[in-house]
UniProtKB/TrEMBL annotation:
The chain crosses the membrane at residues 29-52. The lineage of its organism: Bacteria, Pseudomonadati, Pseudomonadota, Alphaproteobacteria, Rhodobacterales. Keywords: Membrane, Transmembrane, Transmembrane helix. It comes from Rubellimicrobium thermophilum DSM 16684. This is ABC-type multidrug transport system, ATPase and permease component.
């Protein structure tokens, strides 16, 4: 079993979050914002692709059409 080094007092979650932000995340804030923006673009693109493909599946499965359109 391990014993805490600071005499048993555990830091608060707020203090740990501040330490994590200052020490590791703050220097990379530009990349974090860029990653969030790109994830939003990817999500919107995926939603758009699904919306574009919806009529194709609706015609095949609801209409029961099996004819090939060339």
């Amino acid at each position: 079993m391990t014993v805490p080094a600071s005499g048993g007092a555990t830091p608060s979650p707020r203090r740990l979050s501040a330490w994590l932000w200052r020490g590791y995340l703050a220097p990379e804030w530009r990349m974090i914002v860029l990653a969030l923006l790109l994830m939003a673009v990817e999500g919107a693109t995926l939603g758009g692709l699904a919306a574009m493909m919806e009529p194709m599946f609706d015609r095949v499965f609801r209409g029961g059409g099996t004819r090939r359109h060339c």
